[in-house]
Amino acid sequence: MAGRLSPPFPCASAALLLPWGLFYTAWPPDYPVAAPHTPESPGVGDPAQAMLAQFRRFAKSPLATVLIALLLISFAVWGIRDVFTRTSTKDAVIQAGNRTIDSVRFKGMFDRYRKSLEQQNQGQPISVAEAVAQGLDTRILQEVADDESLSAYLAKIGVRPSDEMVVEILRKQPRFFDPVSGRFDKKAYQVFLNEQQVSAEQVERELKDQTAQQHFITAMVAGLGAPRAYTALQSVYLAERRSFDYLILPAAAVGEPIKPTDADVQKFIDENAARLTRPETRTVSLVRFSATQVLPTVTADPAKVQKRFDFEKDTLSTAEKRTVIQVPLKSESQAADVVARLRRGELAEAVAKSIGSQAVTYSDSPKVGVPDRKIADTAFSMTPGEVRGPVAGDLGPAVIRVVSVIAGHAATLEESRAKIEAEVKKQAAQDKVYDMVQKYEDARNGGAGLAAAAAKVGAQVVQMPAFTAKGQMLNGQNLPAPPKLIQLAFGLAKGADSDTQQAVPGEYYAIHLDAITPPSKLTVDEVRVPVMRQLVMQDLFKRLSTKAEAIAERVRKGEPLAQVASSSGASVGRGVDVQRSAADKSFSAELLGKVFLVKTGEVVTGRDLQAGYVVAKLSGVSTAPVPELAIATEQTRGAARQSLLQDLVLQTRAAARATIKPNVDLKRAKSAIGAEADATAPAQ
Q: How far apart are CA 513 and CA 448, in angstroms?
């Protein structure tokens, strides 16, 4: 896996514990139907498959049901932890004050973090071994320890959001808000928790932690501004300009290029075997059960269409909305005066203030948006412009004025038919596919191999092109398949069948591992052209660099650059007031990197933007005019403030960790994610 794995989130908890993203839904296109399995494929006579089939049959048997029921009863009586662990050892990967991250929770954090990186890598799988090799486990461990320490410290000093504040945050999430009723949708919230495999307590705890940290840091940095001297130094640095004379040695200045032989190419291959080795590839046959493919064959049952419409009618309809002004009364004796004044057109705010009250306005609100049920019932029975009072509300008497009414609309089946029928057909397709999967599983439990079981239920088997562990096909393109399929293929033995997997709702698959092609060194014929080109360029720049350094040495000894250029068949150019931002635009980054490090009169060499080499002599250093620097200083203060804020946050987290002194168990962390720990690695 090339490159380093960079954390995609600034805060561990936001990335690891609140995964708000969507699931990967890509799926392979239709490939040609695979040829029948070879005799190597396990079938009825394969002992391993027969044993697995027995396990499957037992898992569905009445005896298994009884045993599972007894196991659940033991959980209820003795507790889940006691069933599995009879010792008193505390499972703590991280212990920060009274806060504990156990192995299961850390593994969940690690897996979610790794999956977020896979999504950034266009879905290419990242194995646990690869992640550990890049130090991802250690970095997550330390980041979470910092986060837990800060949360423990804030709780210690009394920064604790109330339960009501957390509930209010959840209620404002669009995903959990019913736009029709205007209420928090508990069912949508529970569906989310089930999808993400997290508990409500876990999500709400993390919301509390994040809210406490946000409020604390916001208060801490309020009014923070970067000193002008700080941004002025940055502006001077960025606006620095340098002038220099230079000559360019073209490729032709060192004669004809070399002509590498096949022996040179083979030597290059041997010296760079790690880069020039074809990785292991695997070929699988896939049986796919797809609701998308089945959809054209199903019809919408009229009875189910009507039933679904009845269920969704309230959601499809538009609720009536009203703008209502409520003036709470201290006593019912105030009602007549308030009603009269409102009817005369006086402002409700002024009228309410005169009686020691405060007007409440509900703008374009549905009936459920008015919290007082009695006030809502009355307001939604009045005509626009009507004033009525006193109205006995749940919270006391009030005068109500209806400002405007936006009529609602009751949805009809005919106008919603296309949508409802599409939903019914989609569900029917998913049900049909699920039934196919069950029949396929029954055939597998009976001892049939993947191909035979697929044939029994009429499912198609396709052969996918060979691919690597990173999900790349031989043409270098990514295999259009779920990452889990790739991981599954590289966990099977040759000739083995996988269990049925769910990709997304309505999409299931199983695979048979047809072939394994081991890693092999690339041949001369495969890499001749690119390697020869690289060898030519390496030799060219080596000779150009040598000649450029010889010319530079002559200039350093006092020869004029123009005279040296003339004798070398080159002409002199001049770079005037060149800034760092010109790197790889007017001049190469390599050359400017050296030019901005030397003193006036010094000579440097570096590559040209084209296939050449440059010799440059610095003639002057200047900066931008003062007015321009002043403008740049002000323009960069915002970015400088953000930089200071980030530094302050990091220092705050470090200080909290130094105060709390969390215990971090690296061995337990590696064990939790299934990686081997260094036996000498101590807990921190």
A: 16
Q: Six-digit token pair at 305?
A: 């269409």
pLDDT digits (tens, 9 = 90+) for 305-325: 999 898 888 888 888 999 999
Give the three-state DSSP class for 407: coil
DSSP 473: B
Which two three-digit tokens encode residue 38?
A: 């070879």
Q: Where are the beta strands (DSSP E) in 360-457?
A: 360-366, 387-393, 396-406
* H/E segment holding residue 437: helix 413-445
pLDDT tens, position by position, 545-589: 999 999 999 999 999 999 998 888 788 899 999 999 888 898 999
Does 12 score more than 50 pLDDT? no
> What count of other Cβ atoms lies within 10 Å of the Cβ of residue 322?
22
Strands ordered across the beta sheet of 461-463: 461-463, 281-290, 507-517, 501-504
Residue 91 confidence class, pLDDT cut points 50, 70, 90: confident
- The pLDDT of 156-182, averaged and rounded, is 72
Class of residue 382 by CB neighbours under 10 A (exposed 0-12, middle 13-18, buried 19+) = middle
- What single DSSP character describes residue 38? P
Tokens of 240: 């620095």
Q: Tell whether pTM > 0.85.
A: no
Higher pLDDT, 180 or 98: 98
3-state secondary structure of 31: coil
Sign, CA dihedral 632-634-638-640, equals positive
CA gap 222, 208 in Å, rounded: 21
Contacts of 291 (CB under 8 A, 6+ apart): 426, 429, 430, 432, 433, 505, 506, 507
Q: Which long-range contacts link 100-104 to residues 24+ away (Cβ below 8 Å)? A: 101/144, 101/148, 103/668, 103/669, 103/671, 103/672, 104/672
> Rounded to an integer, what distance in angstroms lies between the CA atom of residue 467 and that of residue 482?
13
pLDDT digits (tens, 9 = 90+) for 243-301: 999 999 988 888 888 999 999 999 998 998 888 888 999 999 999 999 999 999 999 99
As a whole number of angstroms, the distance between CA 339 and CA 355 comes to: 13
Q: In what helix (H) or strand (E) does residue 590 lie, and over which residues does it extend?
A: helix 589-595
Interhelix angle for 228-239 vs 637-660, to 10°?
A: 120
Question: Do the beta carbons of residue 496 and residue 450 sit within 8 Å?
Answer: no
Two tokens at 254?
């060192």
pLDDT > 60? residue 365: yes
Torsion (CA) 42, 46, 48, 51 in degrees, nearest 10: 120
**Phi-psi sector, 490: left (phi>0), alpha (psi -120 to 50), beta:** alpha
Q: Which two tokens stand for residue 258?
A: 């070399």
Give the Cβ contact number of residue 88 at 10 Å.
5
d(CA 602, CA 245): 11
The answer to whether the Cα torsion of 86, 89, 93, 97 is positive or negative is positive
Tell me the per-residue pLDDT of 183-213, one tens digit each, with 9 for 90 and over: 667 777 777 777 666 777 777 888 888 888 8
